[in-house]
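During the first year of the project, the team set up a workflow for recording each protein of interest as an amino acid sequence followed immediately by a discrete structure-token representation. This format lets reviewers and collaborators read both layers of information side by side without switching files. As required by the reporting guidelines, we include two representative entries from the current panel. The first entry is reproduced here exactly as it appears in our internal archive.
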Amino acid sequence: MEIFKGKLLVAEPFMVDDNFKRSVILICEHEEHGTTGFILNKPFHTKMEKLIPDFPECDAPVFLGGPVGLDSIHYLHNAGHILDGSLEICKGVYWGGDFDKLKFLIENKLINAGDIRFYVGYAGWSEGQLASEMDEGSWLVSDMDANYLFKTKPFVLWQSVLHNKGDRFTVIAQISDDPQYN
């Protein structure tokens, strides 16, 4: 399956890299010079108000988006129709937008916790790097559905995406995270 903006990368079940073990990554940019995405299922266990002191109170979850640029914060949301500068990634999912307007929309309860996810850092690959990892069998490619982002619990996302691919992937989804049980 071809990789492009709006697709998911799903870690193969025996990936040992702790940065990406059992991860599901939404590809937000795939260009000749490289690829950028966000790990959707690694909760960061903090609140935005702790990361940015003047940020309005918001219970939206914060995730570790990847090992690159840990000094940056990104956001995926479903409010592209009201948040200027948002980039549509796939149906119902947008990336970024005007940060000051985002704070205004959250303060005025026009964007709530169920509409947005924040990411510290991102996953990034330089030119040819992701293709090499694909050749090694490190990743599976899957279709994105906005429900994966907004409705599926992070701790079951990896299994859910694989199960929804059907066939042999349903069996792969059942492989234990602990190698002693395989």
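The second entry, processed by the same pipeline in the following quarter, appears below.
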Amino acid sequence: MQHTLDKFMKIITTLLHDESDHPVAQFVPSQELFDTIDLSLQKEGIPEEEFDQVLTDLVLKSPRTATNAFFNQLFGGRNDKAVLGDLLAVMLNNSMYTYKAAGPQIGVEKVVLREVCRLIGWGDKADGTFAPGGSMTNYMAMVMARDAYDATIRYKGGRDNMIVYTSKESHYSIPKNAAFSGIGRDNVRYVPTNALGQIDAAALEQMIQNDITSGGHPTMVNLTAGTTVLGAFDAIRPISEICQAHDIWLHVDGAYCGSVLFSDRYKHLIDGIELVDSFSVNAHKMIGTPLSCSIIVAKNKKHLHDSFSNDASYLYQTDHDEFNLGKTSLQCGRRNDALKFWTLWKSVGTNGLAKIVDHQFDLGETARDYIRAHKDYTLYSFEDSISICFNYRNIPARALCTALYEQEELLVGYGSFGTDEFVRFVTINAQNSHQDILDFFAKLERFVAHHHELSVLEVQSS
């Protein structure tokens, strides 16, 4: 094992040195992948030296999500304390379903979840669990909503016309989860949004009334804290009133920006969060832990137990259910995703987490200020968002982002809202500085100036 750890350190040291000179990895077209890197598997193993070379080649050609040139997804950066926790979790290899298998690591998860519930404003009845991604936490919320509507469904299956409501700007997992949970894709209602991408409460109320009149059974409303394109926050309080009036489960998908929970400056963006039935947040996004670190919490832990508990005498052999976390988890075998969040939180404190969150909004403001000050840009974003949406010189966003990627300059994506398509530049890497944001725009402008084909697209677009 020590030999392997030495090998690991050698490869990672090589990667870190190469990242400093080349923040974007070598572009490997998908159609050339298997000819470029030896990914083949064979009956016999290969010599150690050849193995080292293949592994190093694979690492160096993989997308670099931790550098100051990566603005493509809703995660990024590399926090050293969180990485330490993740490496320790790999070495310990505890499975988090029983106290017998995980011991003190169960306490790590319970402390994190308890503190998240406390920050929300919930009491001792609240609890949560970890899951492998925001899509899965949204699914767990939908299953709890389904079972809260009718406790017999988990035994006899669904019969009623259950309906889920979500905004047009919500995460793509919602219709998938409706299919998985038996509610059905056709029973997902997409509520219109305002100009900022926030759900329209009046339209939601009307849709609920129409469905009730038609014999439908409104079961769940999904709100979003940080929509995937514009980074908008749905207003919780007015929707909570609607849900309470009709006895509908209210979930807030905070996978992207729910970590404003930790910030006194920005917690107002989820005002009323204590009123919801469930809330999910990804620490691997705004908090910057390694993938994945997704949390789902419920105001009343009975719903977690009712929906996900199943007895297994071969598994639950010791200790109280409170310490056998498989009783409230969708999974059985489950890696320790809590430890990397705990090591970070323990090292910097809640105030340190707030600084991480606040810094990303400050970087967003730096980007918006730059765009506003330069006439070649069109800004589509608004205040209090870390999704900075813009176009440059009317060049189609899709073509610009693709060219930057293939030429190994910057990794940034594009999105759309209404009839507009634009570059979506996210300031979620808290290791970035304000200068890194300015350098992004400088590099983009130099790139366009040196690529005639993009200037042609600009003329055609105009």
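For the second entry, the following points were noted during internal review. The longest helix spans residues 338-372. The longest strand covers residues 217-224. Both points are flagged for discussion at the upcoming steering committee meeting.
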